[in-house]
């Protein structure tokens, strides 16, 4: 295993993530540190990074370096984006950083930055065609991909910090500033000819700190139960009221908004004006948030270099395998339970009649059903439920995460707490509790059929005869324990499927 530090120096903030790289192409973030440095502030006047901002950046990077040294980081990858890219004093700044902090920064080209953002998104989201809007402090990137191939990108050299600076000194009211930013950014969008080429089915994906803050505000306003930014979907009709509320407030009032970072309060209206202009101009009725971007793009480059040429095909499986390894689950047992679960799902389809999307839910639950043992064996199904709800899972929707979590909670017995279930009622649908119970009993049987973790039961064949399901097992060795354990679920099976269960 190798431990690396990734420093991302933007126009608004500096971020450090510490990442464990595993030999088989997986990685896990183990620490993070962020500071608002506003490096790009006031650059529009003369194109120079200001001494106060440089001093704050040096102080921050020294702190990052100390944390890396204390954490046993093997190497540091440092990148700088728009502010440093445009700075007339770029060379002297980079030299000073290396001398003072012992950190070498590489200035990314606009294309390199867009490509890394794209890789961070495409390897963590199951969206085949999309338009990525990444809002930084000094620039805004628009990236269009189709069939998981990056086709076009554009960098608008104005972001939340620079647009705030441009329109804050004119004696305008807050709402007038926002209107000016909307008008200005629309002009910039109209200069990008290829926007007309975008497939009407493409989905919008939002990347960056402003989107993360927007999620936190929405979470507070609507009491959203999941604390997961990645794959959160926001309807335009729910975005506009938030924007209309924020854009009229003065700075002191904005700082009091729950969920809004005080360090971002002054620049968020500009970011929201960008979003409003973008969705209006391109006709998007909703957009999905990505918790991954440039830094994740670097992580994939380092952990799995093959993604430089070709993105991950099965995003969900890659993510699940990462968690199985990280949580220390028995990988052979996990694989066996997944295979048996899939067989059960397919052979009982005539009874449950679930569409294929629920097989996806069952796979997530089967892969992570035992992860709660990382906390404690006793009642580990409940710990597994909690961990699934709070893990970083790629390629699955928030509803699928909740369904999978409660399905995993049922792998020992039907264990759905009404209070906990009701916490997620706004994400779930009316029939979901019955769906979970059916998926849960399938998972329980599959897990029981590998009770000894020895892979004795190689396969199953189900015959539906009258009021009974006859489950014939293909075994190598003594499967007495496995069949006994599986039959313990027969009462729950009958309640869910209205059939008696026999196992041979």
Give descriptors for this structure.
Nucleotidyltransferase, domain 5; six-stranded mixed sheet; 14 strands; 504 residues; Hypothetical protein af1432; 3 domains; elongated; alpha/beta
Summarize the structure.
The chain is elongated.
Write the layout of secondary structure elements.
Layout: E1 2-9, E2 13-21, E3 27-36, H1 51-70, E4 75-80, H2 82-86, H3 90-101, E5 105-107, H4 110-122, E6 130-135, E7 140-146, E8 149-156, H5 160-167, H6 174-190, E9 203-207, H7 209-222, E10 233-235, H8 236-246, H9 251-254, H10 268-282, E11 286-290, H11 294-303, H12 315-326, H13 331-347, H14 349-352, H15 357-368, H16 380-390, H17 398-409, H18 418-423, H19 432-448, E12 457-465, E13 468-475, H20 480-487, H21 490-497, E14 500-503
Parallel strand pairs: 1-4, 4-5, 6-9, 9-11, 13-14
Antiparallel strand pairs: 1-2, 2-3, 6-7, 7-8, 10-11, 12-13
Question: What would your notes on this structure say?
Answer:
With 504 residues, this protein is an alpha/beta fold. It has three domains: 2-108, Nucleotidyltransferase, domain 5; 111-295, Nucleotidyltransferase, domain 5 (2-Layer Sandwich), CATH 3.30.420.150; 315-503, Hypothetical protein af1432 (Orthogonal Bundle), CATH 1.10.3210.10. It is 47% helix and 18% strand. The chain contains 21 helices and 14 strands. The protein has helices spanning 51-70, 82-86, 90-101, 110-122, 160-167, 174-190, 209-222, 236-246, 251-254, 268-282, 294-303, 315-326, 331-347, 349-352, 357-368, 380-390, 398-409, 418-423, 432-448, 480-487, 490-497; strands spanning 2-9, 13-21, 27-36, 75-80, 105-107, 130-135, 140-146, 149-156, 203-207, 233-235, 286-290, 457-465, 468-475, 500-503. The strands form three sheets. A six-stranded mixed sheet has the order 8-7-6-9-11-10, sandwiched between helices. Strands 3-2-1-4-5 form a five-stranded mixed sheet, with helices on both faces. Helix 8 (236-246) runs antiparallel to helix 10 (268-282) and helix 13 packs antiparallel against helix 15 (357-368). The longest helix is centred in the N-terminal third of the chain and has 20 residues, at 51-70. The chain is elongated, with a radius of gyration of 26 Å.
């Amino acid at each position: 295993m190798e431990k690396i530090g990734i420093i991302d120096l933007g126009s608004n903030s500096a971020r450090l993530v510490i990442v464990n790289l595993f030999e088989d192409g997986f990685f896990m973030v183990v620490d993070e540190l962020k500071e608002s440095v506003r490096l790009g502030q006031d650059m529009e006047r003369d194109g120079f990074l200001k001494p106060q901002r440089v001093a704050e950046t040096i102080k921050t990077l020294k702190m990052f370096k100390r944390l890396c040294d204390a954490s046993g980081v093997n190497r540091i990858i440092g990148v700088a984006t728009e502010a440093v890219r445009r700075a007339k004093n770029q060379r002297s700044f980079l030299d000073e950083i290396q001398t003072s902090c012992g950190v070498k920064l590489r200035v990314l080209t606009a294309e390199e930055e867009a490509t890394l953002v794209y890789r961070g998104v495409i390897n963590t989201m199951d969206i085949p065609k999309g338009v990525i809007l990444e809002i930084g402090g000094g620039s805004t990137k628009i990236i269009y991909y189709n069939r998981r191939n990056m086709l076009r990108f554009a960098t608008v050299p104005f972001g939340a910090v620079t647009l705030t600076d441009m329109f804050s000194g004119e004696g305008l009211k807050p709402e007038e500033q926002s209107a000016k930013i909307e008008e200005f950014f629309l002009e910039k969008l109209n200069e990008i000819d290829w926007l007309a080429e975008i497939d009407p089915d493409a989905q919008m994906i939002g990347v960056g700190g402003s989107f993360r803050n927007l999620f936190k505000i929405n979470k507070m306003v609507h009491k959203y139960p999941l604390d997961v930014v990645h794959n959160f979907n926001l309807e335009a009709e729910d975005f506009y009221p938030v924007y209309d509320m924020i854009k009229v407030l003065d700075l002191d009032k904005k700082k009091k908004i729950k969920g809004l970072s005080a360090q971002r309060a002054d620049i968020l209206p500009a970011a929201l004006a960008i979003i409003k202009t973008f969705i209006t101009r391109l006709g998007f009725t909703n957009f999905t948030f990505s918790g991954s971007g440039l830094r994740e793009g670097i992580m994939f480059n380092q952990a799995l270099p093959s993604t430089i040429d070709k993105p991950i095909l099965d995003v969900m499986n890659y993510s699940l395998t990462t968690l199985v390894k990280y949580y220390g689950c028995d990988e052979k047992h996990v694989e066996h339970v997944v295979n048996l679960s899939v067989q059960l799902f397919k052979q009982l389809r005539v009874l449950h009649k679930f569409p294929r999307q629920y097989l996806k839910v069952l796979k997530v639950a089967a892969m992570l059903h035992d992860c709660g043992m990382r906390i404690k064996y006793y009642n580990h199904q409940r710990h597994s439920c909690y961990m699934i709800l709070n893990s970083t899972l790629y390629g699955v929707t928030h509803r699928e995460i909740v369904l999978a979590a409660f399905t995993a909670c049922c792998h020992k017995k039907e264990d759905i707490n009404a209070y906990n279930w009701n916490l997620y009622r706004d994400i779930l649908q009316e029939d979901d509790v019955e769906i979970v119970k059916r998926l849960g009993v399938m998972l329980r049987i599959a897990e029981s059929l590998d009770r000894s973790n020895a892979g004795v039961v190689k396969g199953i064949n189900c015959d539906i005869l009258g009021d009974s399901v006859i489950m014939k097992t293909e075994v190598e060795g003594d499967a007495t324990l496995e069949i006994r354990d599986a039959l313990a679920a027969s009462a729950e099976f009958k309640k869910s499927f209205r059939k008696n269960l026999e196992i041979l």
